[in-house]
């Protein structure tokens, strides 16, 4: 893992299997703007946030109660000079027990401070993993971006969700 990759960790009072199952329900915690299957190795899905951010992701690993990994196959941002900043990045959800609770550590390998999108992306992941996914795991209700909010610039949505 690149030491400068983005990571965030949550702790929940649920089982590792419950956390794993929730991660696979990407539309319930990240965005309703996702097309395609999202849970099994080999599944590919497209995230399209109103043309502002579009990427294709392949699920590369799904070990129940332990780990989920995704590979970004292609990516386009409308707010960066280099639209392909995420291409080849791996997103990993490591799941395990810690002090009687379940820990989920999300890492986007390759999302580094040198990326033009780093601040926006780090803010968004902090919300979607740290709040939305956590809520989905603990209450059954995530806070994904909806198709209606997709008209709002990604950075405004991420900042609005944090306040």
Low-confidence stretches: 149-163
Architecture (CATH level 2) name: 2-Layer Sandwich
CATH fold group: Alpha-D-Glucose-1,6-Bisphosphate, Chain A, domain 4
What portion of residues belong to β-strands?
25-35%
Helix and strand content put the structural class at alpha+beta
pLDDT averaged over residues: 90
CATH class: Alpha Beta
For the biggest β-sheet, the strand order reads: 1-7-6-5-4-3-2
The count of domains is 1
Q: Outline, from the CA principal axes?
A: globular
Rg from C-alpha positions?
15 Å
The run of helices and strands is EHHEEEEEEHH
Walk me through the structure:
- InterPro entries: START-like_dom_sf (IPR023393).
- The protein is α+β, with helices and mostly antiparallel strands and 163 residues long.
- It has a single domain (6-162), classed as Alpha-D-Glucose-1,6-Bisphosphate, Chain A, domain 4, CATH 3.30.530.
- It has helices spanning 16-23, 26-29, 118-139, 154-162; strands at residues 6-12, 34-35, 44-49, 53-63, 67-77, 90-98, 101-109.
- Strand 6 (90-98) and strand 7 form a beta hairpin.
- The radius of gyration is 15 Å and the shape is globular.
- Residues 149-163 have low confidence and may be disordered.
Quick take:
26% of the residues lie in helices and 34% in strands. It contains four helices and seven strands; from the N terminus they run βααββββββαα.
